[in-house]
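Extended Data, record Transcriptional initiation protein Tat
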Amino acid sequence: MALPEAEGKALIYSRRQLLGAGAAAGLIATAAKGETLAQIVSGLNDGKRAAMPRPASAPVAARPRVLVDPVIDPRLLARARAAFDANRGRIRHTNLVGITDFSRASREQRFFILDTNTGKVSSHYVAHGRGSDPDHSGYLERFSNAFGSNASSAGAYITGEYYNGKYGRSMKVKGLEPRNNNAEGRAIVVHSAWYAEPEVIREHGKLGRSEGCFALSHASLQEVLRRLGPGHFLYADKLA
């Protein structure tokens, strides 16, 4: 029995998760040749659909689904994945992504570099903007995209070029959403700072505050610049 198109799309999405994006892309490409989603799904269900030919010299091994280190909250990870998918065409390198969980206090490691091939994560301290934490509680209270706010902005970014600035070697970022599209104009960047060193936490119980930039320790910045250089995806948000 043919299924409604909406159900067909849902099943293809399910098969994308189980079989990988390549298999799902094959189904969609076939639909573009004239078959409806309902016909494709019907063929899959009754076993009558012929298997797609594959060159014997180039077998494609099934890739297991990657399990991401649970240090990243799965709810935040889901948001990051949705933003990644929405901006996929603008991301040059997909092997590593950055995710910042501003739900956590600045005394916690909350800047993550995720290896999308293995699910492994490295964790780092990162400061938020003083405009996001006016009482200096150590917690980000609000985001802002406004000029002069000195606040952190939420959303998806693409990492840009390296440059030498006030804090030494740093990296530009570009906001990809209306809630952070002033990042370049506001000079929001990734840099190191003395107030983002672990010693500050040991002395004060929290990091200092930036002017909205992703401020890291010197050691953490070196890893970020080396692994998460220009053309990578970076996402920042706070869970309610």
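Summary. Helices lie at 5-19, 21-32, 37-46, 74-86, 198-204, 218-227.
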